[in-house]
Design brief:
Keywords: Cell membrane, Membrane, Transmembrane, Transmembrane helix, Transport. The chain has helices at residues 2-38, 42-46, 60-66, 69-101, 108-120, 125-134, 152-164, 167-175, 180-191, 193-208, 212-217, 226-242, 246-251, 255-290. By secondary structure, the protein is mainly α. It is flat.
């Protein structure tokens, strides 16, 4: 009986690990394929010879993207935009979520109705653009920060988390003489680290990947973020690739390799940041979505 149970347990473990291994392989294969394409010459890519290992190994795609000041200017712009926007967004999200999580706030249901209405019926593009232009934010980083200063879904997640925290903690602090601001700073925020870091990761990823807002609102090439400048660099290199000789075509990176390398370059900061947030990520999502 014991041997049968032990064999069954081992079989179940093998099947679980096998299933997880297959799933992990399926999940990581597109990423490995993109890396392989980024280090391959154009001809093998177009012939369908590149899978998860480079063919005609070459750094040409990365060299063409990185060499020169434009690339590093784009990285600097994206870093400034991401850092500034995330700080503003987290500040606004906390200031909005905490009052709405308190049942004694006058007009709480009315404010929540307005917020949810805006989430369901967002403003159309033309009025949105005209408003940004009227307040003088066109061609400035502020146009990528202030109009997107809060995400309704993230605010509701944080509000639900605040509501789920024990009321006794707040009541004890109030009895000791703490006001709402001290309760928020010294009690609510320290207890909300998992969900706060999760929302920070959401905001960071969204801000780093800004593309359409930058196209709409930023005309100065020196202020555009990484995603837009990478697109412009690929377009500018397209003509050179089309006029390359047959020998260069076999040896050098072309449009497909440039596209793949731009994906890898743009993803590097998020790949570096994610491990530091990983242990809070699932916990923060579950607590913010289920509780309350």
């Amino acid at each position: 009986m014991v041997a049968s149970s032990s064999f069954r347990f081992r079989l179940e473990s093998i099947l679980i690990y096998l299933g997880l291994g297959i799933f992990a392989f399926i999940a990581v294969t597109p990423f490995l394929h993109t890396i392989a394409r980024s280090f391959s010459a154009e001809a093998p890519i177009l012939r369908g010879e590149v899978y998860v290992w480079p063919v005609g190994f070459s750094f040409d795609a990365y060299e063409r993207l990185v060499i020169g000041g434009t690339f590093w200017l784009a990285y600097r712009n994206s870093f400034i935009i991401t850092t500034s926007a995330t700080l503003v967004q987290m500040f606004m999200t906390i200031l909005c979520a905490y009052p709405l999580s308190r049942t004694y706030l006058p007009g709480r249901n009315f404010f929540m109705t307005l917020i949810v209405f805006q989430m369901i019926f967002p403003p159309s593009l033309i009025p949105f653009y005209l408003t940004v232009r009227e307040v003088g934010l066109i061609d400035s980083w502020g146009s990528l920060i202030w109009p997107y200063a809060i995400n309704t879904f993230n605010m509701i997640v944080l509000k639900s988390y605040f509501q789920a925290l024990p009321r006794e903690l707040e009541e004890s602090a109030i009895i000791d003489g703490a006001n709402d601001f001290r309760v928020l700073i010294h009690i609510m925020l320290p207890l909300s680290v998992p969900v706060l870091l999760t929302l920070t990761l959401f905001y960071v990823v969204a801000n780093w990947n800004l593309f359409l807002p930058a196209i709409f609102f930023i005309n100065d090439g020196n202020k555009q973020p990484l995603q837009v400048i990478l697109r412009d660099m690929i377009w500018s290199m397209q003509l050179a690739t089309q006029t390359a000789s047959a020998d260069d075509f076999e040896r050098l990176a072309g449009m497909e390799a440039l596209k793949a390398s731009s994906v890898i370059i743009a993803a590097i900061p998020m790949l570096i940041a994610y491990p530091f947030f990983q242990r809070y990520f699932i916990k923060g999502i579950l607590l913010g979505a289920i509780k309350g």
